[in-house]
Fold this sequence. Notes:
Structural class: mainly alpha
Amino acid sequence: MNLGRAELERLYKTEPDPDVKERLLLVLKVEGDGMVPARAAKEVHRSRTWASDWLARYHDEGVEGLRTRPRSGRPPTLPEEIAVMIRKKLKESKQGWTTRQAYEMIVKESGIEYHHKHIYKVLHRWGFKQKVPGKVHVNTASEEEKEASSGIRRAAERALS
Length: 161
């Protein structure tokens, strides 16, 4: 299916998906401008293999072939109803929670043990962000904190001399 240059330009301008837009640009350069695929690939900063694969999909399936297909993946082991319940508990917490506490809640509710690094991914997928306490700088510390800090420093200097 070969579309004319004007139709390809219209599709390119109206396409909201940036990946499809990049592939449309490749097709526009090759089909609309008559550019050699290797040169068009270089202009869009992609490999010749990438270009030939997408051009082949365009020739076989048309513009719909330029869309990213859904990929299969490993299904989540945590049942959705349990995940919803845990998310709800985490959202209701006023003081926040640690990753360790989230891990323990997942194990308690589902019996599934994830690696501690994977807990970060799960929480991120659920829309939670890690909060890190801010550092207290000397200039922003209270007078008592400044005095305590300078007392420790003076004691250390005396011990070294």
